[in-house]
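protien #1 (seq + structre)
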Amino acid sequence: MPTDGTETLSLSLVPAAGYQADTQGFSTPIYDTLADVPISATPPTVSITASETALIESTGNTTTLTFSLSEAPPAEGILIYVDSETEGVISEFNVFDAVITGADAPFPNGDVSGFYLRMTEQTATLTVSAFDETTNPQLTPAQALEGIESVTFRLAGGQGYLISQESSTVALTIADNPNSVVIPGNGGGGGGGGEGPVNNPENEFNDTIRNSRSLDRSQRHKPNLRDPGNPGSHRYHAQSRGSR
């Protein structure tokens, strides 16, 4: 069957009224099949660490996730996949003010439990704080009360890299304030409370999954981890610097 061969997809922001566009564009090769994707004879090994594991919403402290490759990535970069067991957990972070170096802006997976990060340098960092729900006027104080939540991010398998055996996970806690305690009976999987996930506007970030019609679990699936062209339908708007 004839093919077009490897092509390059290039995207860039276009200036318009009300905003300025970053001149930095994005490009990635598009291959016909996985067999066409060049694979290093010895794929680099990726590791992940966190500078701070206890985030406090009221203080706005940050953590820096550092991703390191055992060798420099190819010119097109390497798409790293990071996941957790907590659906929608990415909405717990202030992703709109995230600062990224050494990589393109990350984007979440289908159930917003994790994200993809295309590393363009051997070391990439993602600095982010926890989102303070008390700043959301749609939430009542009871809905904003979560106590202390926990999430563990792990490096997941993908094309073109291996995972470090020593540094493959980071465990974080998110507290409302310095005096927070774990609240029993939280339905969000992390420890916390509020008035439940269904009626809480905080969860509207991914309400298309939670409020959709019932489907068999066999019909629900995460994106193909080996298909960088179909990683998810949402993308962060984040600050990216030094990614080239």
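ok now protien #2
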Amino acid sequence: MDSSKRLSLSDIKNISALYDGTGDGDSTMCSYADSLYGNLMEQIADFEETLRDDEEIGAYISSFGREMLIRIENVGYHNPYFIIFYGTLVDEKSKVQLVQHLSQINIMFVAVKARELNGKPKRLGFRVGG
């Protein structure tokens, strides 16, 4: 994909600084979590480009002594060290929120059958102009 359609790391830093109150949008404002968040969202967008129209992004997460398949509904971060995955367990349909330290992130993206929401699968990755 043409990299000009992606948000640059500088854009992500500016957006983060505005939302988390760490600055006035100066592109030098950056912490570990927002840097990883930006890279993670690019990986999600790239993976979502491979999905069919009836699929959404899911992920296997190995935690708490078992492997869980979740439908990822949102991703966030809390500087300086936490990435947060919001979603639903695919089999149980229970809401989940997984807070992971940057040093523990280990996630495998998988295609899961899309839910029937407005006839379109949910997409998390973001592209500028696309």
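Residues 1-5, 23-29 have pLDDT under 50 and may be disordered.
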